[in-house]
Amino acid sequence: MHFLSNKELDNLSISERKEYFYALRDYCLLIKDNQLQIGQELIYRLYPLLRNYKLELEGIENIPNDSNVLFVVNHSNSHDIFTAYEILSKLNRKGSVMVATDCLNTATTQIFNISNATLLDRRKAEDRNTSIYRFSKKILEGKDGVIFGESTWNLHPIKPMHNIKQGASKICAITQVPIIPTIFEYIETNDFVDKEKDLIKKCIIRFGKPIIINYDDDLISQTNKIKQGMIDIRKGIWTDYNIDRRFISNIDPELYVNHTYSKKFEAFGFTYDSRKEQEYILFSEGEPNENEYCINPNGEFVPGITEKNAKLRKVLKM
C-alpha cells in the first residue's frame, strides 16, 4: 500500500485522513507475523544480572489497565532496549520494541529478533515504512509497543529531547491506542569511570499521562505535543533529583567527555558512530546541528565529536 508523505497527509481533509488510516489499519491486519517471543523472558531473567544499577518505576497509575498502549521513550544509551523489555516484564505486559539493526552486531540483533522486536534498517526508506506496518500489526493484535522517538541517542549535555519523528503518531493514528510518554533517566555517577558498567547508579522510569492521536489535527502539532510532554517529564525528574543541566556552564567538561566516551565505545553489543547517527536526528530550521560536546585542542568545551583513540582514553583516566 502507498505510504503518504507528511506533506501529502497534511493536504488531506479530516475525512480523507480518517479514511486513509482506516485503510492502513485493514492493510496491517493482513500482514503475517511469526516472530518468536521467547527472548523477552530471557532478557528479563538475565539482564538484571548484567546491569549494575537499580530500576525505579514512577507513574504506573498513568498506564491504562483496559487497553494496550504505545510507550514513546527518549533514547540515550545502549541499555534502553533491554530496559524497555525489562519494564514490559515488570508490568506483566507483552509487547514489541522497535529496534534499529544498522548499529548492532549480529548476536545482539538475533537476541532482539527472538524477542519479537520490530527490526528495521534506518538507511532504507522502504524499511522505515514497512516497519510501521509490522509494528502496527502487533499493536492491533493486543500487544504494547515501545518506540524511541528521537531515533538515536541524545548525547547533548543539556538538551532534554531532540525532535521526535512522526512514526509514533502515525502508528497511533492507525491503531488508535493511547501514547504513554515515557522517560528513562539514567542517574550517572559523579566519578570518572573506566568501565561502562560502573557509569550508572540507577534508572528512573517515569510514565506520563496518556495522549490520544486524533484525525482532526495535523500529525506535526500532535507530535510536538508528545515531545513537549516528554520534556516536561524529564525536567521534572532533573528537578526532583537535583540534576542541574540548565546551562553548559553547569556541566563538568572532563566528566561529561569521560562518560560519553564510555557510552559510545565501552557498551556491550553496540557501536556508536557519532557522524552517522547524527544523520538520523531531526533538527528544526535554524537549530544548531549538535548532539554532542567535546574538548577541543584549546581546552574549550564546544559542540563536537569525541573520537576513539588510546591517547584520549588515557587522558580520560580510562
CATH topology of the largest domain: Glycerol-3-phosphate (1)-acyltransferase
Going by CATH, the homologous superfamily of the largest domain would be: Glycerol-3-phosphate (1)-acyltransferase
* Total number of beta strands: 9
The strand line-up of the biggest sheet is 1-7-6-2-5-3-4
Percent in strands: 5-15%
- The chain-level structural class is alpha/beta
Mean pLDDT across all amino acids: 91
Contiguous runs where pLDDT drops below 50 for at least 5 residues: none
The succession of helices and strands, N to C, reads HHHEEHEHEHEHEEHHHEEH
* Total helical elements: 11
CATH architecture of the largest domain: 3-Layer(aba) Sandwich
Characterize the structure shown.
By secondary structure, the protein is α/β, with parallel strands linked by helices. It folds into two domains: 6-240, Glycerol-3-phosphate (1)-acyltransferase, CATH 3.40.1130.10; 251-315, no CATH class. 39% of the residues lie in helices and 15% in strands. The strands form two sheets. It has a seven-stranded mixed beta sheet with strand order 1-7-6-2-5-3-4, with helices on both faces. Strands 8-9 form a two-stranded antiparallel ribbon. Helix 2 (14-29) crosses helix 7 (167-175). The radius of gyration is 20 Å and the shape is globular.
